[in-house]
């Protein structure tokens, strides 16, 4: 049997030494391969491991907050991501760019590439200063106009603090264009603005991450510079137009962060007199995010010039929480591209601002309520008087009121004639009623009484609705004025006599008091045939109280229209009462009153026995 020898012993075969060398080489190659693999193919951390004990957002030196799923600086993953990233574009300091034309002066900050001031040169605030559309308190809390809104609150906040590089600084005149760029190597943002000589500008916003687009919207987060108290906020609405149909959403109908799908001709937010409306380039793919926040404001307007919802010093008894509405426009197919109207809700301006569909304008943005058509016609007539007859809005209201009363004067005469006919047959009507007075109200024979009365009126040419015609005409006019006068920006801060603002209440309540007195005289001088004297006396007190209550804290322009109309009505009725028709009507009314009271009729000052 062959003998087995230890290879380590002297004289062992050389083949065993070769085997040993081969094993050493294989081990060396194996560990070298493992080292190379670890170096060039690092393991990625699991999602669970990354989320444990890691803050959601990490601020970078530029102030831009990195979302929690972004590669952290200094890690192998960040190095790999930055290998193909674009160069960083960031400003080192905050700077302003002012764009100006004859209508406005807009100040942009490169921090967020957003608007910090939007002065409308043709309008003043309640303290005589140039009106700034930017509501400072709301902007500081919820964002400035034309800021970027995304569905990631962290990213939204970051983009509003990002230091953009503007294409121009200082003051530039319109027409012009302005571009803002920002990149932190991960996110890239571009905002462009184009201006002309009108209240309309064009804007575009594009946000990408590592080259992939991110849904970004252009926002007006809420508020206008003319808003001062809780009542002003209640008049703020989100306004949208879809396929030519408009809708005005009050605060209780708006959910914060809710998205409305297109198509949209236009959409935005407005208050009593001013609006910020987006007119998207692509209405069919446009989307609107509705913004609803809460803000602490004064219950009443400040008198110290602070305004804009600032809190009362000391306790909070003078403040209240109110909704703050805003809107943001975007596009489902890419960057948000839109025109923006920011200015007054003036009819002559709005009707010349067209959507992408040229048949659609912003004119319906001015909503006059249920009697809107009549209100619009009345305002156009008022505007014509102001432009061609008198340049004062108060006197224009007076002249328009005189014209309206002159037009309905023939109807007043017809009403008096109809009332006189009614009084002539009143004794016969009373006799018919007496014949059926023993019947119950539910008795079918009551229909016979009504038939006899109607036949009597027909035989004598009496129209039972003849006395209602002036009222049926005047009431819609009154309600149309009620809805129109407080909403037209032309009457804002319009002076007349002692009135500083025809769209606000009379500060001395002179017109409401005049309303009460004149309304009482109207009831006193106007004959009411067929009306029970007790009911007539009740109306003589109820109507003045009602009119005084409406006009006490309402737009003084309405009180002016109503009071002037009453004075004209009193004068007209006083003249008509002196005519033969008026004298006969008063005699018949007096005779009926005596008969009702049981007094015998008189003839030449002597009582006549029946």
Write down the CATH topology of the largest domain. Beta-galactosidase, Chain A, domain 5
Question: Which class of secondary structure composition applies to the elements?
Answer: alpha+beta
Approximately how much beta-strand content do the residues carry? 15-25%
Low-confidence runs: 1-27, 33-63, 65-83, 303-315, 603-610
Describe the global form.
elongated
SS elements, strand count:
24
Helix content: 25-40%
Number of domains: 2
Protein name: Membrane protein insertase YidC
Pfam family, one: 60KD_IMP
Biased composition (Polar residues): 42-68
Region (Disordered): 42-77, 591-610
What would your notes on this structure say?
The chain is built from 17 helices and 24 strands. Strands 8, 10, 11, 12, 13, 15, 16, 18, 19 and 22 form a 10-stranded antiparallel β-sheet that branches. Strands 6-5-4-3-9 form a 5-stranded mixed β-sheet, with no helix packed on it. It is α+β, with helices and mostly antiparallel strands and 610 residues long. The chain folds into 2 domains: 96-366, Beta-galactosidase, Chain A, domain 5 (Distorted Sandwich); 375-425 and 460-597, no CATH class. The protein is elongated.
Please outline what is shown here:
The chain has 17 helices and 24 strands.
Give the helix/strand layout:
Elements: H1 14-40, H2 47-51, E1 58-59, E2 65-66, H3 76-82, E3 96-100, E4 104-109, E5 114-124, E6 130-132, H4 136-142, E7 147-149, H5 153-161, E8 165-166, E9 170-173, E10 176-183, E11 187-195, E12 200-209, E13 212-214, E14 217-220, H6 230-234, E15 237-242, E16 245-249, E17 258-261, E18 266-270, E19 274-280, E20 286-298, E21 319-331, E22 336-344, H7 347-350, H8 372-388, H9 393-407, H10 409-424, H11 426-435, H12 446-459, H13 469-484, H14 510-525, H15 533-552, H16 556-577, H17 580-597, E23 602-603, E24 606-607
Parallel strand pairs: 3-9
Antiparallel strand pairs: 1-2, 3-4, 4-5, 5-6, 7-14, 8-10, 10-11, 11-12, 12-13, 12-22, 14-21, 15-16, 15-18, 17-20, 18-19, 19-22, 20-21, 23-24
């Amino acid at each position: 049997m062959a003998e087995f020898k230890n290879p380590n012993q002297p004289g062992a075969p050389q083949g065993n030494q070769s085997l040993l060398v081969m094993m050493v080489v294989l081990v060396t190659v194996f560990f070298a391969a493992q080292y190379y693999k670890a170096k060039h193919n690092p393991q990625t951390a699991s999602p669970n491991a990354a989320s444990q004990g890691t803050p959601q957002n990490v601020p970078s030196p530029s102030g831009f907050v990195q979302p929690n799923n972004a590669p952290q600086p200094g890690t192998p993953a960040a190095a790999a991501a930055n290998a193909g990233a674009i160069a960083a574009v960031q400003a080192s300091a905050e700077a302003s760019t002012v764009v100006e034309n004859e209508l406005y002066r807009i100040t942009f900050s490169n921090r967020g590439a957003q608007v910090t001031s939007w002065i409308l040169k043709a309008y003043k605030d309640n303290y005589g200063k140039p009106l700034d559309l930017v509501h400072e308190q709301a902007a500081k809390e919820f964002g400035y106009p034309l800021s970027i809104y995304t569905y990631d609150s962290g990213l939204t906040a970051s983009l509003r603090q990002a230091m953009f590089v503007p294409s121009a600084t200082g003051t530039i005149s319109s027409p012009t264009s302005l571009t803002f760029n920002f990149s932190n190597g991960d996110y890239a943002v571009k905002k462009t603005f184009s201006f002309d000589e009108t209240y309309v500008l064009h804007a575009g916003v594009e946000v990408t991450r590592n080259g992939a687009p991110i849904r970004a919207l252009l926002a007006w987060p809420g508020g206008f510079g003319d808003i001062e108290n809780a009542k002003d906020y209640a008049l703020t609405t989100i306004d949208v137009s879809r396929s030519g149909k408009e809708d005005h959403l009050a605060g209780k109908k708006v959910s914060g962060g809710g998205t409305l799908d297109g198509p949209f001709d236009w959409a935005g937010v407005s208050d009593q007199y001013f609006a910020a409306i987006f007119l998207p380039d692509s209405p069919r793919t446009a989307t609107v995010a509705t913004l609803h926040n809460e803000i602490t404001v004064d219950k009443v307007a400040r008198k110290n010039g602070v305004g804009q919802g600032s809190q009362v010093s000391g306790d909070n008894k003078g403040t209240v929480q109110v909704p703050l509405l805003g809107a943001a426009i975007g596009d489902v197919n890419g960057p948000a591209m839109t025109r923006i109207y920011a200015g007054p809700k003036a009819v002559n301006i709005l009707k010349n601002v067209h959507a992408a569909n040229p048949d659609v304008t912003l004119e319906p943005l001015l909503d006059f309520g249920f009697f809107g058509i009549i209100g619009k016609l009345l305002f156009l007539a008022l505007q014509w008087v102001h432009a061609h007859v008198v340049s004062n809005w108060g006197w224009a209201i007076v002249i328009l009121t005189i014209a309206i009363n002159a037009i309905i004067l023939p109807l007043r005469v017809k009403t008096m004639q109809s009332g006189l006919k009614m009084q002539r047959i009143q004794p016969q009507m009373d006799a018919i009623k007496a014949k059926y007075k023993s019947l119950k109200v539910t008795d079918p024979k009551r229909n016979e009484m009504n038939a006899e009365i109607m036949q009597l009126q027909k035989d004598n040419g009496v129209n039972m609705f003849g006395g209602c015609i002036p009222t049926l005409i005047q009431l819609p006019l009154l309600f149309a004025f009620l809805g129109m006068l407080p909403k037209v920006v032309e009457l804002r801060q319009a002076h007349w006599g002692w009135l500083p603002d025809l769209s606000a209440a009379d500060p001395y309540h002179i017109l409401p008091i005049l309303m009460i007195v004149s309304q009482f005289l109207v009831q006193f001088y106007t004959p009411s045939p067929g009306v029970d004297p007790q009911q007539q006396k009740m109306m003589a007190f109820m109507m003045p109280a009602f009119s005084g209550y409406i006009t006490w804290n309402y737009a003084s322009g309405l009180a002016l229209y109503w009071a002037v109309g009453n004075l004209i009505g009193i004068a007209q009725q006083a003249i008509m009462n002196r005519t033969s028709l008026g004298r006969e009507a008063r005699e018949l009314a007096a005779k009926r009153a005596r008969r009702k009271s049981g007094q015998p009729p008189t003839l030449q000052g002597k009582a006549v026995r029946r």
